[in-house]
Design goal:
152 residues; 6-stranded antiparallel β-sheet; globular
């Protein structure tokens, strides 16, 4: 049973890392340099986790599968963003949301997000909505990281 994770995260140096992991191995990634002194500690992160027998188990099938199901994922990000519009109470755990009634049979889908500071937590709504609004272009901007094919 394959586990595919899309992630997007912002660091303290304002760098943004976006990528895909398949069964714990990086298969695609993009890093946008920040404007501050190098600091890889995270301010916030968002994960979309897909798991099940109908999730692609080959790296080259992951991006097409995510794009094929764009309406499902876009809608999920937008609805979760709307739910967090007023923010979220600070907690030690990440927020997890799994309201994907139209997910393909045999696929479990959850969204998880967390922010370090309360002010960042109030921004999660706009972050989630931005990902949903630009889902296809974000996925299409990812590149295979050096050594990813050899690591499988």
């Amino acid at each position: 049973m394959a586990k595919l994770i899309f992630y997007r995260q912002e660091r303290y140096d304002n760098g943004i890392r976006t990528g895909l992991e398949l069964d714990g191995y990086p298969i695609a990634e993009r890093f946008e340099e920040g404007d501050g002194q190098r600091d890889p500690a995270l301010i916030w992160y968002v994960d979309l986790r897909c798991e099940g027998p109908r999730v692609p188990s080959e790296p080259e099938l992951a991006e097409p599968w995510l794009l094929e199901h764009s309406p499902l994922f876009r809608d999920g990000f937008l609805r979760f963003g709307e739910r967090l519009r007023a923010g979220a109470d600070k907690d030690i755990y990440s927020l997890t949301w799994g309201d994907f009634p139209d997910a393909p049979e045999g696929v479990g889908v959850t969204l998880s997000c967390s922010a370090v500071r309360r002010v960042d937590g109030r921004e999660m709504s706009s972050i989630l909505r931005e990902i949903g609004t630009h889902w296809e272009e974000i996925i299409q901007s990812l590149e295979v990281p050096e050594g990813a094919v050899d690591s499988r």
